[in-house]
Amino acid sequence: MPIIKLPFSMIAVIKANFNAHITDLLLAGCTDELDARNEAYKVFECAGAVETVVFANRIIETKQYDCVVVIGAIIKGDTDHYEYVCQYVTQGFATIAATKLTPVIFGILTTQNEALAYERAAIDKMNKGQEFAKTAMEMIESFKSL
Questions:
Q1: In this model, does residue 2 exceed pLDDT 80?
Q2: Does residue 140 lie in a domain region?
Q3: Domain extent at residue 49
Q4: Which pLDDT tens digit goes with each residue over 137-146?
Q5: How far is the C-alpha of 72 from the C-alpha of 31, rounded, in Å?
Q6: Which of 30, 72, 77, 139 could cross-link to 16 by cystine, CB 3.0-4.6 Å?
Protein backbone atom coordinates (compact mmCIF):
# COMPACT_ATOMS: atom_id res chain seq x y z
CA MET A 1 0.00 0.00 0.00
CA PRO A 2 1.32 3.45 -0.85
CA ILE A 3 2.11 5.95 1.87
CA ILE A 4 0.09 9.12 1.37
CA LYS A 5 1.92 12.39 2.01
CA LEU A 6 0.29 15.79 2.29
CA PRO A 7 0.04 17.72 0.15
CA PHE A 8 0.02 14.74 -2.13
CA SER A 9 -0.54 13.87 -5.72
CA MET A 10 -2.59 10.86 -6.72
CA ILE A 11 -1.60 8.66 -9.62
CA ALA A 12 -3.95 6.26 -11.38
CA VAL A 13 -2.27 3.16 -12.81
CA ILE A 14 -4.26 1.18 -15.37
CA LYS A 15 -3.03 -2.31 -16.19
CA ALA A 16 -4.34 -4.23 -19.18
CA ASN A 17 -4.85 -7.90 -18.33
CA PHE A 18 -4.21 -9.16 -21.86
CA ASN A 19 -0.63 -10.48 -21.96
CA ALA A 20 -0.71 -10.44 -18.15
CA HIS A 21 2.57 -12.33 -17.91
CA ILE A 22 4.16 -9.11 -19.27
CA THR A 23 1.87 -6.45 -17.81
CA ASP A 24 2.11 -7.92 -14.31
CA LEU A 25 5.90 -7.43 -14.43
CA LEU A 26 5.53 -3.86 -15.70
CA LEU A 27 3.01 -3.13 -12.95
CA ALA A 28 5.37 -4.54 -10.31
CA GLY A 29 8.19 -2.30 -11.52
CA CYS A 30 5.91 0.73 -11.58
CA THR A 31 4.39 0.22 -8.14
CA ASP A 32 7.76 -0.68 -6.60
CA GLU A 33 9.12 2.66 -7.81
CA LEU A 34 6.06 4.57 -6.58
CA ASP A 35 6.27 2.82 -3.19
CA ALA A 36 9.99 3.58 -2.90
CA ARG A 37 9.20 7.28 -3.40
CA ASN A 38 6.15 7.25 -1.11
CA GLU A 39 3.84 8.27 -3.94
CA ALA A 40 0.09 7.75 -3.62
CA TYR A 41 -1.54 5.66 -6.33
CA LYS A 42 -4.46 3.41 -7.12
CA VAL A 43 -4.28 0.45 -9.51
CA PHE A 44 -7.10 -0.33 -11.92
CA GLU A 45 -7.35 -3.27 -14.32
CA CYS A 46 -9.13 -3.67 -17.61
CA ALA A 47 -9.31 -6.28 -20.36
CA GLY A 48 -6.66 -5.18 -22.84
CA ALA A 49 -4.72 -2.33 -24.42
CA VAL A 50 -7.68 -1.16 -26.51
CA GLU A 51 -9.84 -0.81 -23.40
CA THR A 52 -7.21 1.30 -21.63
CA VAL A 53 -8.11 4.25 -23.86
CA VAL A 54 -11.70 4.63 -22.67
CA PHE A 55 -10.71 3.65 -19.12
CA ALA A 56 -8.07 6.40 -18.97
CA ASN A 57 -10.53 8.91 -20.38
CA ARG A 58 -13.09 7.97 -17.73
CA ILE A 59 -10.52 8.22 -14.93
CA ILE A 60 -9.47 11.67 -16.12
CA GLU A 61 -13.12 12.78 -16.07
CA THR A 62 -13.31 12.01 -12.34
CA LYS A 63 -10.73 14.76 -11.70
CA GLN A 64 -9.35 12.68 -8.79
CA TYR A 65 -5.94 11.95 -10.29
CA ASP A 66 -2.97 14.14 -11.17
CA CYS A 67 -1.56 11.66 -13.68
CA VAL A 68 -2.57 8.40 -15.34
CA VAL A 69 -0.08 5.63 -16.12
CA VAL A 70 -1.33 3.14 -18.68
CA ILE A 71 0.34 -0.29 -18.79
CA GLY A 72 -0.20 -2.76 -21.58
CA ALA A 73 1.57 -5.09 -24.00
CA ILE A 74 0.76 -5.48 -27.69
CA ILE A 75 2.83 -8.31 -29.15
CA LYS A 76 2.89 -8.94 -32.90
CA GLY A 77 1.36 -12.18 -34.05
CA ASP A 78 0.72 -13.74 -37.46
CA THR A 79 -2.15 -11.45 -38.50
CA ASP A 80 -2.70 -7.74 -39.10
CA HIS A 81 -4.55 -7.41 -35.78
CA TYR A 82 -1.36 -6.09 -34.13
CA GLU A 83 -1.26 -3.13 -36.54
CA TYR A 84 -4.89 -2.19 -35.90
CA VAL A 85 -4.59 -2.43 -32.13
CA CYS A 86 -1.39 -0.33 -32.13
CA GLN A 87 -3.03 2.30 -34.34
CA TYR A 88 -6.20 2.47 -32.25
CA VAL A 89 -4.37 2.75 -28.94
CA THR A 90 -1.81 5.26 -30.19
CA GLN A 91 -4.44 7.47 -31.83
CA GLY A 92 -6.68 7.19 -28.78
CA PHE A 93 -3.99 8.41 -26.43
CA ALA A 94 -2.89 11.12 -28.86
CA THR A 95 -6.46 12.42 -28.80
CA ILE A 96 -6.59 12.30 -25.01
CA ALA A 97 -3.25 14.13 -24.76
CA ALA A 98 -4.50 16.86 -27.10
CA THR A 99 -7.86 17.36 -25.41
CA LYS A 100 -7.33 16.73 -21.68
CA LEU A 101 -5.24 18.50 -19.06
CA THR A 102 -4.14 15.42 -17.13
CA PRO A 103 -0.87 13.84 -18.22
CA VAL A 104 -1.12 10.25 -19.44
CA ILE A 105 2.01 8.11 -19.44
CA PHE A 106 1.94 5.77 -22.43
CA GLY A 107 3.23 2.53 -20.92
CA ILE A 108 2.03 0.29 -23.70
CA LEU A 109 4.76 -1.95 -25.05
CA THR A 110 4.48 -2.61 -28.79
CA THR A 111 6.93 -5.34 -29.65
CA GLN A 112 7.63 -7.62 -32.58
CA ASN A 113 7.77 -10.74 -30.38
CA GLU A 114 7.42 -12.16 -26.90
CA ALA A 115 11.17 -12.09 -26.18
CA LEU A 116 11.36 -8.33 -26.80
CA ALA A 117 8.37 -7.73 -24.54
CA TYR A 118 9.91 -9.82 -21.77
CA GLU A 119 13.24 -7.98 -22.11
CA ARG A 120 11.43 -4.69 -21.46
CA ALA A 121 9.29 -6.04 -18.62
CA ALA A 122 11.46 -8.37 -16.54
CA ILE A 123 12.40 -6.97 -13.14
CA ASP A 124 16.02 -8.10 -13.59
CA LYS A 125 16.22 -6.57 -17.09
CA MET A 126 15.22 -3.08 -18.26
CA ASN A 127 11.77 -3.06 -16.58
CA LYS A 128 10.03 -0.14 -18.24
CA GLY A 129 7.46 -0.01 -15.43
CA GLN A 130 9.98 1.86 -13.30
CA GLU A 131 10.42 4.41 -16.08
CA PHE A 132 6.65 4.87 -16.36
CA ALA A 133 6.49 5.73 -12.64
CA LYS A 134 9.43 8.15 -12.84
CA THR A 135 7.89 9.86 -15.86
CA ALA A 136 4.57 10.24 -14.03
CA MET A 137 6.28 11.90 -11.07
CA GLU A 138 8.24 14.19 -13.39
CA MET A 139 5.11 15.25 -15.24
CA ILE A 140 3.25 15.97 -12.00
CA GLU A 141 6.11 18.20 -10.85
CA SER A 142 6.25 19.92 -14.24
CA PHE A 143 2.51 20.62 -14.16
CA LYS A 144 2.76 21.98 -10.60
CA SER A 145 5.34 24.51 -11.77
CA LEU A 146 2.95 26.07 -14.29
A1: no
A2: yes
A3: 10-144
A4: 999 999 988 8
A5: 15
A6: 72
Backbone angles phi, psi at 51, to 5 degrees: -70, -20
Q: Which residues are catalytic?
A: 81
CA distances from residue 32 to 5, 35, 39, 43 in whole angstroms, order as listed: 17, 5, 10, 12
What DSSP string describes 42-82? EEEEESSHHHHHHHHHHHHHHT--SEEEEEEEEE--SSTHH
Domain assignment present for 5 = no
Query: Is 1 part of a structural domain of the chain?
Result: no
Furthest C-alpha separation in the chain: 50
Q: Each residue of 27-39: pLDDT tens digit?
A: 999 999 999 999 9
With respect to residue 84, please indicate whether it lies within any of the assigned structural domains.
yes
Q: How far apart are CA 119 and CA 116, in angstroms?
A: 5
